[in-house]
Structure formats: structure tokens, C-alpha cells
Specification:
The chain is mainly beta and 746 residues long. 5% of the residues lie in helices and 55% in strands. This is TonB-dependent receptor.
């Protein structure tokens, strides 16, 4: 080999040696670009991969989250978008009721307790008004299924919905988003964040959601006087970071002026659960309710302090929230004697939330930098108080007051038993105390219990309700195993207990009835599951199978011929089923997700009865005992037996720096009983909604523009009912079509 050939060979070898790592890096980068995003969650109060946590969790973020809220929907839009999660409300955009794996509480009162906890930026939002805080500048939503009694305490027997918003950082980051659509829908959202100096940074976020009134009142002849809303919210966050110490201050506010739920009289006929000719989406006939107005405000602040030490960290989270407001509704949905249909008497109610105050404090110490084991211990304190005034068109105004005090200590640890097997255990003791008292009764109203004074004038006889105090202390625990079958697949099993604290319901006082109480319910849950990232991280498949039993399950007997709102304890509630979450990067251009959840629930109490619908207007299927329906064997109320959701995104490049995309999302809700008793008229089945986005995204200038549609097939889905007067129902939002623009700045 001559000198020239030797030189060429040497150059070729050297080039190969240099290019091989570059080629490998390029191939690795291409592989990562074609892989699904790794999802980080904080379900166990520390940052972990969702695939490593031995709990059934689903997360929602990015385009899948943004698409759901493009038309300005409230938090209820999450219903059926994640297997096992459902939400509804008979109080408009406030007081949502959440259900996980079929377990929730259908009580509409502003003092209602729920077995699903809402955690917003590490702070529990206990009152139903606080649970409805608008969602904007959200980084991620986590739905943590099953009882979470170790780390999150009482009232988590069903699970947790956890919202984490975007946080301040040292780099400039901003976005602005605007959308306009049908019914005068106009939504504006934006955020800006940046460094103030080397230690301080900030993030300011805001939201304005607006829709014109579009429902007319045929009785008064008023056009377009209901259905709209104007909601504004803002959040300011300040972050201080210095070596091993950080402080995050969060200040948030919300102001809503809108419409309460729209009740539609006799919209289903006896013997049918289908909407009939009385139903007109654009028109109602009200003589009461002042067009069902709704006004609420809330404000809050939190301070999160974190300090790192050698081998552990200390965290303190202090929060204070307030809220007040009122809403009014023509509950019978029509006019007595006029209709639509037969309405035996008028029913109108106004509810006022007065001076809600909630204070929480959590202290937590957790391991840092340990290998093969992790631990954390903490303490929690909760204190809240508020009043609820119920104003009935007949009985007048009555006010009740609620106080709730809670403290807890907890601990959790994880230990690697081997390279593949890890064990997690947790323990918590919680003490909960509630006080209840009655204030003014039947002010400016007619009363059934009355006396005549010396002047011969009838006066209401004020009933002497005794103050109520209930308290309980419970231990909750969990034990879980996680086994790494391969590098891409893990198996987990978990057994956990939890409890929902005793509750007091005083709404019956407004109707000259006694307040009611329910003892604490306790749950034991079993689940096994698999989490896997397959096909070179292009297919994520997570599956969980569960079974749970609830002793002394709390139930709310609402409406019916008794026209009441009473708390009861049934002997037992049982739930079983499974969830499947799938995400698939089918091609470089097509991404698919799908989820399916089956929740088969059953009330078990051989003697428990409730009052069914009034005046025989519905077809009760249950066996009747002394005029009441026996509910043994019935599913939990508002518990969809099946939930299915599906999304697809297809994108094609346009030029060197953009793409055209089509995104669609669909959600299906299976058979659902609306009440504790079973009646033909109050079952829903096969409800579904779909969404569509068609748009263009430019990567160089970081903006997107899209046409969107929500409820694109304009489905009329029954979400709930009122049964004491006539077959009143309320339905989902109408089809909204519009255009959205978003631009990011860095």
C-alpha cells in the first residue's frame, strides 16, 4: 500500500471514529424525538415518573388539556376525559361534584362533604366553592385513584384531583391566548414570568371567560337573559431561591357573575328518560328565580417554604382562602298551573355562602439523596368556618353555621427490597371535629309552625335546635409493592384504607326540619396493575384492577316526596372494576390516546329506604316499603358504569418551520343512575361529546391558530334532575364553534 493509500485509509478510519459517536447521538436524538414524553407526577409529594409510582394515576396536560377548555368551560369539563373520573353540578359553574371510581356525593348544598379531594398547588380546597376555582396556566392535572389516606388525610376515600400550575423561573417566559366563538363566547388567557434578580423571580397569570346570555324566558317575554357568564381570575407568584432554600408565594383571586343551572320542567315524560317536546335548549318559562343569577368571589394566598439539609429537606405550606357569594334558581323549572307540563307548586331557592374562611398548615420532612430508600414524615392542620343562608320562596331565609377543625400526623416510606422489587408503606392518624349551630330562621317567610301573638298576628315559632358537635379520630394506612418486570414494564399491588370524616347537614332547617348527621365512613381498597412503555417508548399502556368496600357509607337522601336533604349511613358500599390508559405514537404524524374505565358499584343495606319522586310522576323500579324505595343493590348515584375517551392528533409539515394539524377528542358515559333509588326517568345512558381542532402551528415564531368546536354534534345530554315537584332536568352545554390564537414568547 503506497503512502497516499495509507493516508486515505488513516483519514477514513479517523473520520469513522469521529462520526460514529455523532451518528449514534443523531440516531438517539431521532429516537427520543419519536418517543412519548416522560410524565413526572407528585402524587406521593415528591417528583417521580408516573410509571414508577405504585398507584393508579392518570395525568392530563398540554394540548389534550387545552382543547377541553377552549370554549371557556369550567372544571366540570374534565368529566369522562380520564377513566374513572366524573364531575357534575346543579349549581352552574360553582360547587362541582367529583366522582372517582363511582364514589362521590350528589349533595347540592354549599356545605356538602365530598370523598374526592381537590388539591390546587399543594393546598386542599375543601369547600365546594373553592373546588371550582378556574383553571388557567396549568402545567399538569393528576387524577390519583383510590383512597389516599396516608399523605392527604380524611375525605379522600375516592381519590384526589391534583392541579399544578406553571411556576416562576429565572428565564423569561410568556404567552397570550385568545378565543372567540358562538353565543358571544370570548376568552382571554395569558401569563408572563421572568427573573427579578439572581434570587427572585415572578409569574403573573390571568384569565377572562365570557359568554353572552342566550336563553330566553317565554313567561316574561325577555329575550336572551340567561346562560351567559363573565368570569375573571388572576394569580401572582413570587419565587425566592438561594442555595438550599426556596420560598414560593401565591396570591390568587376569582370573580364570577353568571347564570346558575338552568332547570327544565317536565323535560322527560313518565316512563321515558328521553328529552320530550317540553324541552327547548334556547327557551325556558320562569316566573321566579330572577333569571337564575349567580355571583361568587374568592381570594387566597399560600406560602411554600423549602429548606435543604444534609440528607433531608424541610417543607412548610401555609394557606388561607376566603369566599362568598350567592345564586338563585327557579327550581321547578316552570310556572305552577301553566307548565310546561303539570307543576303542582312553585319552588324557588336562593343560597348564600357567607364569610368562608379556610386556613391550612402542613409541615413535612423528607429524605434527599438517599439510595434504595425514601421516607417522609409530617403534620397537618385545617380550620374552616362559614355560614349558609337558604332563602325559600315559601319559608323565607334561614342561616346555619359550620365550623371544622382537623389535625393529623403522617409518615410514608419506600424501600428497595431488591434491584427489581420495592415496598411502600404509609400511616396517618387524623382527628376531625365539626360544630354546627342555627342562626336566624324563616325570616320574611311563611311557616307551618306558628303562634298568634297578643295582637292576633301570626308569627313563626322559632324552633330550638341544639348546637351539634361531632368528632372522630381514625388511622389510615397503605401498603404497596412495585416489581420491575423488565426495564419497560412494572407490576404493582396496593392495599389502602381511608376515611371520610363525620358530616353535618343543616339544610332541612330552612324547611322547618331538623339537621341530620352521618358517622364517618371507612374504606378498604385493593388494586393491582401494570405500567409499561413499549415499542421503543412509542406505546404506553397502563392497566389497573380494583375492588373496594366502604363501611357505613355516607349517602344523601335528596328531594323526593319528602322534599328534604338528609344524611344517612348505609351499611356498606362495594365497588369493583378496572381502568386502561393508552397512549400510542402510531407514526411520526399520528398520535392516539384512549382510556376505558369500568366502575361497578352497589349499595348494600337490607333495610335502607328513601322517599322517591313526588306525586307519582316517575316509574320507580325498586321494591317499595311503606311508601319508600328500598335501595339495597342499587348503584351509587351519579356513578357512570363505563367511561371511554379517545383522542387523535394528525400533523403534516408545512414549509420548514410549521405544521398543519387536526386534533379530535371524544368522551362517552355509560349508564348512570341519578338518584339513590332506581327510576326509569332518572337513568341516563350513552351520553357522549366530541371536540375538534383544525389549525396551523409555526415553530419559528411559536404561535398557533386553530378553528375549534366543542360538543360538535350538539348533543343534549341530561346531567342531573330534580324530582320532588316534577320531572325537572338540567343538561350539558351547547355546541360552541370558534377560532383560537396563541403565541408564546421566550
Amino acid at each position: 500500500m503506497n503512502t497516499l493509500n495509507k493516508a486515505l485509509v488513516a483519514m477514513a478510519v479517523q473520520a469513522a471514529l469521529i462520526s460514529s459517536p455523532l451518528l449514534a447521538q443523531e440516531q438517539q436524538a431521532q429516537k427520543e424525538a419519536q418517543a412519548l414524553e416522560k410524565i413526572q407526577v407528585t402524587a406521593q409529594k415528591r417528583t417521580q415518573s408516573i410509571q414508577e409510582v405504585p398507584i393508579s394515576i392518570a395525568a392530563l396536560s398540554g394540548e389534550r388539556f387545552d382543547a377541553i377548555f377552549s370554549a371557556g368551560d369550567d372544571v366540570q369539563a374534565l368529566a369522562n376525559r380520564i377513566p374513572g373520573l366524573y364531575a357534575e353540578s346543579s349549581n352552574g359553574r360553582v360547587a362541582p361534584r367529583f366522582y372517582i371510581r363511582g364514589l362521590g356525593n350528589s349533595d347540592f348544598d354549599l356545605a356538602a362533604s365530598q370523598p374526592v379531594s381537590i388539591i390546587m398547588d399543594d393546598v386542599v380546597m375543601e369547600n365546594v366553592i373553592l373546588k371550582s376555582f378556574p383553571l388557567f396556566d396549568v402545567q399538569r392535572v393528576e387524577v390519583i385513584r383510590g383512597p389516599q389516606g396516608s399523605l392527604f388525610g380524611r375525605n379522600t376515600t375516592a381519590g384526589i384531583v391534583k392541579f399544578d400550575t406553571a411556576k416562576p423561573g429565572q428565564s423569561f417566559d410568556a404567552y397570550v391566548k385568545g378565543a372567540g366563538g358562538s353565543y358571544g363566547t370570548l376568552n382571554l388567557e395569558g401569563a408572563v414570568g421572568n427573573a427579578i434578580n439572581d434570587e427572585w423571580s415572578f409569574r403573573l397569570s390571568g384569565l377572562s371567560q365570557n359568554r353572552d346570555d342566550w336563553i330566553s324566558n317565554a313567561h316574561t317575554g325577555e329575550k336572551d337573559v340567561m346562560g351567559g357568564f363573565h368570569e375573571n381570575a388572576a394569580r401572582l407568584q413570587l419565587m425566592y431561591e438561594n442555595n438550599d432554600f426556596s420560598a414560593l408565594f401565591n396570591l390568587h383571586t376569582r370573580d364570577l357573575d353568571g347564570t346558575a343551572s338552568i332547570f327544565r320542567a317536565n323535560a322527560v315524560s313518565k316512563g321515558s328518560n328521553k328529552l320530550n317536546a317540553n324541552y327547548d335548549r334556547d327557551t325556558v318559562s320562569y316566573d321566579k328565580g330572577d333569571n337564575n343569577f349567580q355571583k361568587y368571589r374568592s381570594h387566597g394566598a399560600s406560602l411554600k417554604l423549602e429548606k435543604g439539609f444534609d440528607g433531608f429537606s424541610l417543607t412548610s405550606i401555609t394557606a388561607y382562602d376566603t369566599a362568598d357569594g350567592r345564586g338563585k334558581g327557579d327550581i321547578d323549572g316552570g310556572v305552577a298551573g301553566t307548565g310546561p307540563g303539570f307543576i303542582p307548586f312553585d319552588a324557588v331557592t336562593e343560597d348564600r355562602l357567607e364569610d368562608l374562611k379556610q386556613f391550612t398548615q402542613e409541615l413535612r420532612i423528607a429524605s434527599e439523596g438517599t439510595h434504595g430508600y425514601d421516607w417522609q414524615f409530617g403534620a397537618f392542620y385545617f380550620d374552616s368556618s362559614f355560614g349558609v343562608t337558604s332563602i325559600d320562596g315559601l319559608y323565607g331565609a334561614s342561616t346555619v353555621y359550620h365550623d371544622n377543625y382537623t389535625w393529623a400526623i403522617f409518615g410514608q416510606g419506600s424501600y428497595d427490597l431488591s434491584d427489581k422489587l420495592s415496598l411502600t408503606g404509609g400511616l396517618r392518624y387524623t382527628y376531625d371535629e365539626k360544630d354546627f349551630r342555627v342562626g336566624a330562621q324563616n325570616v320574611d317567610g311563611f311557616c307551618l309552625i306558628a303562634d298568634f301573638n297578643g295582637d292576633g298576628i301570626m308569627e313563626c315559632q322559632i324552633q330550638d335546635y341544639q348546637d351539634i358537635n361531632v368528632d372522630d379520630g381514625q388511622v389510615s394506612w397503605e401498603l404497596a409493592l412495585n416489581y420491575n418486570l423488565t426495564d419497560d414494564t412494572s407490576l404493582f399491588s396496593r392495599v389502602a384504607s381511608g376515611f371520610r370524616a363525620q358530616t353535618i347537614q343543616g339544610r332541612n332547617v330552612a324547611f322547618e326540619g331538623a339537621p341530620t348527621t352521618a358517622d364517618a365512613e371507612t374504606i378498604t381498597s385493593f388494586e393491582v396493575g401494570m405500567k409499561s412503555d413499549l415499542l421503543d417508548d412509542t406505546l404506553r399502556l397502563n392497566v389497573a384492577v380494583f375492588y373496594y368496600e366502604i363501611d357505613d357509607i355516607q349517602i344523601s337522601a335528596i328531594g323526593g316526596e319528602a322534599q328534604g336533604n338528609s344524611l344517612l349511613n348505609a351499611d356498606k358500599g362495594v365497588g369493583k372494576g378496572f381502568e386502561v390508559d393508552l397512549e400510542f405514537l402510531a407514526t411520526d404524524n399520528l398520535t392516539l390516546t384512549a382510556g376505558y374505565g369500568l366502575s361497578d358499584t352497589e349499595l348494600q343495606d337490607a333495610d335502607q329506604t328513601v322517599a322517591p319522586c313526588g306525586s307519582g310522576q316517575c316509574t320507580v323500579v325498586d321494591r317499595m316499603v311503606n311508601g319508600e324505595a328500598l335501595i339495597d343493590g342499587n348503584p351509587f348515584p351519579q356513578s357512570p358504569k363505563q367511561i371511554f375517551n379517545f383522542t387523535a392528533r394528525y400533523a403534516v409539515p408545512m414549509g420548514d418551520d410549521g405544521e398543519f394539524f387536526v386534533f379530535t377528542d371524544w368522551a362517552f358515559q355509560g349508564e348512570t343512575n341519578l338518584f339513590l333509588y332506581d327510576a326509569v326517568e332518572f337513568r341516563t345512558k350513552d351520553n357522549f361529546e366530541g371536540g375538534l381542532r383544525i389549525g396551523y402551528e409555526n415553530f419559528s415564531h411559536d404561535y398557533s391558530v386553530a378553528l375549534f368546536g366543542r360538543n360538535i354534534t350538539d348533543e343534549d345530554n341530561i346531567k342531573g334532575a330534580v324530582d320532588f315537584n316534577n320531572n325537572t332536568v338540567f343538561v350539558n352545554e351547547p355546541r360552541i364553534v370558534g377560532v383560537e390564537f396563541k403565541m408564546n414568547f421566550y
